[in-house]
Design brief:
Low-confidence stretches: 1-54, 290-295
Number of helices: 9
Strand content: 15-25%
Largest sheet: 7 strands, mixed
Structural class: alpha/beta
Mean pLDDT: 81
Strand order of the largest sheet: 3-4-5-6-8-10-13
Helix content: 25-40%
């Protein structure tokens, strides 16, 4: 069990230590960890929030593997949490470790009453999430594939039913399961240059993590069928024109334009009545579910 680590700082950013779950061969234990902050880790994207502080929590499946982090903004942005996805060697693809850590992070957020808005952000430039990890899937037998797809579907539902509003900041590619992750969020903001699509049919597969249900609810059944049947990729501007994203913004030099817009949107939500916002989300989620199922 590791102890507290030395904290680096960027401007006035500081880290608040949190206990986190870790897995070992002997079981599950609480591991006090903090996330080192540096210009390498967070980059200039966070330097604009100079009056805020960030609390971090990391989730690990094996020692040294940290693909998901939660950062809690402080100061005037207190109440906003960012889920940071960092699996650069595999373009944030949905591998076993990534999915397990994301599931743990979502459960932590579900229980954290101090969080009022959640942002999903990639730390990998040019990509939000590239979808399923097909290399890992190729090593699974049919039973294991079935279990993993079920796990993905469950994860997306857990994201969809987080009690607070969620916003996906799509600054790059969101394909297959990556777009399904974004669809599980309440709101989506994309860079105009981002590429999105449920491309499973181009690999002889079909959307298995909720995309075939969520996409029609967002863009309509006809457009959803067209996009899924063709496996077409569309950019941020096209996505906005069909209602797939709430906003499309011109990409900036730091390649975080969608995140900055998502942060602005979160700031608009932040001062509203937290109980009213949560209840409004619950009412819309339940209403949409019952209508969709014909009840």
């Amino acid at each position: 069990m590791s102890g507290m680590r030395k904290i680096g700082s960027v401007g006035t950013l500081v880290v608040r230590g949190r206990a986190c779950l870790a897995r070992s061969a002997t079981g599950t234990y609480l591991q006090p960890e903090v996330c080192p902050l540096s210009s390498e880790g967070l980059g200039n994207a966070w330097s604009r929030v100079t009056s805020s502080s960030v609390g971090g929590r990391r989730y690990s499946e094996t020692c040294g593997v940290h693909e998901i982090q939660i950062h809690h903004l402080q100061g005037e942005n207190s109440g906003i949490a960012a889920v940071l996805m960092s699996r650069p060697h595999a373009r944030n693809s949905l591998g076993n470790v990534f999915v397990k850590q994301l599931e743990e992070a979502v459960e932590d957020l579900r229980q954290d009453k101090s969080v009022r808005v959640v942002l999903f952000k990639s730390q990998v430039k040019g990509v939000f999430c590239a979808g399923a990890d097909l290399k890992e899937r190729a090593e699974m037998n049919n039973t294991e594939v079935g279990h993993f797809v079920h796990k993905l579907r469950s994860l997306m539902s857990k994201i969809a039913f987080l009690p607070m509003p969620t916003i996906a900041a799509i600054d790059g590619y969101a394909l297959g399961g990556g777009l399904e992750l974004a669809l599980a969020c309440d709101l989506r903001v994309a860079a105009s240059s981002a590429k999105m699509g449920l491309i499973e049919v181009t690999r002889g597969l079909l959307p298995g993590a909720g995309g075939s249900q969520r996409l029609p609810r967002v863009v309509g059944i006809g457009m959803a069928k067209e996009l899924i049947f063709t496996g077409r990729q569309i950019d941020g501007e096209q996505a906005m024109s069909i209602g797939l994203v709430n906003n499309a913004v011109t990409q900036n030099n730091l390649e975080d334009a969608a995140y900055q817009k998502a942060l602005d949107l979160a700031k608009e939500i932040l001062p509203q009545g937290p109980v009213a916002v949560r209840m409004a989300k619950q009412a819309m989620n339940k209403g949409g579910y019952f209508i969709w199922n014909g009840n």
